[in-house]
Amino acid sequence: MQELRINNQIRVREVRLIDEEGKNVGIVPIEEALRRAREKNLDLVEVSPNANPPVCKIMDYGKYKFEQKKKEKEAKKKQHVQEVKEMKFKLNIEKHDYETKIKHIREFIQDGDKVRVWIWFRGRENVHPELGDKLAQKIIEDVTDIAVVEKAPVKEGRNMMFTLIPKK
To answer: In the prediction, which pLDDT does 119 show?
Structure first.
């Protein structure tokens, strides 16, 4: 949260004053604005320092800071940080294992996370990259209703990797 200047920290000759009810009082000298704030036992807070002249508001600064922190906490609660989950497949995967992993991928994507899929090539499997392509296409087809490919399948050394993200 950005710290605002209050009361005697405000160093300008005149300000555009807004009273505690939110009504625009107009452009007044800083001394008068400070006097009005003191009379009501409130603070003079510079809410828009870049305006010409700066905009100041009469308010309870402690209460204002408390409300701002509360709003920030609420905003944090509502946001979802997208994680990158990983799922690893071997080239010769059994049907049931495949279905279980696809089910997990679907859950991750429905939760709003990215999924990085790895396909391992072991031993002689390295000679047949087309089998990895075939498996990758099958995985993509099985989740195409809820996901799109962010990064296309690429074979790097003994692995093939691609990334799936949720559809908008």
So the answer is: 92
For residue 53, say if its preceding peptide bond is cis, omega within 30 degrees of 0. Answer: yes
Query: Which pTM does this prediction carry?
Result: 0.55
Tokens for 59?
């308010």
Domains identified in the chain and CATH numbers: 7-75 (3.10.20.80), 84-166 (3.30.110.10)
Contact call for residues 28 and 15 (beta carbons, < 8 A): yes
| Measured distance CA(140)–CA(66) in Å, rounded | 48
CB 163 within 8 A of CB 105: no
* DSSP assigned state of 78: H
Angstrom distance (rounded) from CA 6 to CA 61? 8
As a whole number of angstroms, the distance between CA 45 and CA 34 comes to 10
| Angle, alpha carbons 24-39-63 (nearest 5°) | 70
> What pLDDT, on a 0 to 100 scale, did the predictor assign at position 2?
61
